[in-house]
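input
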Amino acid sequence: MIKWKLLDAFLEQDARHNEVVAGYQQRVSEAAGILTSNLAEMDKLMRREFETGEDMGSKKAELRTKIAASNAAKSDAESELRAAYDFFRQAKESNRISVRDLTLDWNGPYRTEVQQKELQPIIDRMAAARLEYYSAVLDVYKLKDSYAHAQEEIKEKVRLDDKSRPGDHIYVHEIIDMSSLPLIRDEELMDISTNRKLPEGNKQNGKGV
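output
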């Protein structure tokens, strides 16, 4: 199977975009984690102050600064993520390889390349085999015709002999039994099409795909 380069590029472009977006998502997650941790720490200080009466003013002020910074970092990360999503959508609408591009490439250059490099050698084999097969069939009929006169002569002799020896008829066989020939049959072609394998008793040569 020939490598479809445009399909690889199509898949890679989404992979690149998804990787970039994932980076922004990770930043949002990390900033949210820091903010959550700082808020939890503030909750502990408040409880400690309430339960012990200890003055936690300076520690709370310091922690509020951290909370404000982590909240701002989270907001910035979320803003960047939204921008990344916008860029992603814009890329899909502009210079991105589209499904339509894939279809046109499939119907055009890629299909042509497959036909030239992989299909044509098979067609050449089919044409050569078809000619050889038809030539062999023609030779069968020519061979049959070459013995037709002799067969008619012996049949006539048998007919005359039957008159003198009634009840002792011997049938004159054809030189060629057409039913025993390896003719190509429609049902076998259908079997190949349906099951993707050769009919029973046949073995594919080394030229198969």
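quick obs: The longest helix spans residues 5-52.
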